[in-house]
Amino acid sequence: MGIVLVTGATGFVAGHCVRELLEHGYQVRATVRELRAAGRRAHLVELAERLGGAVEFVQADLTSDDGWDIAVKGCDYILHVASPIPDVGKESEQAMVEAAVEGTLRVLRAAAASPTVRRVVLTSSIVTVNQGHDVDKVFTEQDWSNPDRLTGYDRSKVLAERAARDFVDQPPTALGFDLVTLHPPMILGPVLHPQTNMSHEPVIRLLGRKVPGSLDVGWSTVDVRDLARAHRLAMETPEAGGQRYICGGEHVWMREMAAVLAAEFGPRGFAVPSRTLPDWLVKLAATTDDAVKRVVPALGKQERVSAEKAKSELGLTFLPVRQSVLDTAESLLAHGIVAAPTPRRWSRRGRIG
After folding, report:
1. What does CATH list as the number for 3-183?
2. Which one from 137, 157, 210, 301 is the annotated catalytic residue?
3. Is 157 a catalytic residue?
């Protein structure tokens, strides 16, 4: 079946890509930052044993050239899922952009130096498609976000994809491999170990009652299991070479997410907030909460993107968002990321705990 390199294997999306590849008979090589940190990849070793496969781990960091020649040696495909995210507030925006761009080019240069690599599938983001525009429309792969109107992570993702496209398009063209980019929106679905990303925050906050109500925001979504399948399909489909694919499924408002969680977990003692907070209160909270601040520009706006190209060319299908939300929540509980509610105790005079 061939050898596939998966970068950043301990991450949320990459871990599911490893699972998808093992289930379909591929040999998997996976990059990690530190080989000595065996505990961070123990879940992948257990996963491979359960599926009757094996994962080979190599040390390679996107901030250094060391190890990448070894990582790509003999590989047929690369799923470049890893993305360096510097500590916001401690790193400048320029440092974030440079880390994203140079990390991507580092992987592509290693691929170009390998005689065996046939395709690189790059995990990009929907933010490279639908941000910085003045029009309200359904966005497709033909659209590019304007980096001059973006900051931080969003800007870094646009410039990283641009750099990747320039690398594979410039002469000489005989690189030996082609490039496919995938563009997911909010990524839901079960975690494989106690590590989350920003997409989990709404479920964590609602289920753990860390917010008094929902914000008037919504997202196009994709289940991480569907996204992992999209990586495999983009790798296997000959016609996908050079293409961009939006992997955005069903849209969900945060209040709809809260309703799904309340219906399922309310009877289990979870007090999921049911009201929607007014925008003025959200903007006030944004002055002290960076996570809230990031969503203020999206208040009241529906994220409209088309995944028709991925459906027709890759055969991609999407799980219902309700299933994704519930499976996300169950995994957060199973891994102790969200705590179960404390049982209430009652006396003759009323509740005492």
Report:
1. 3.40.50.720
2. 157
3. yes
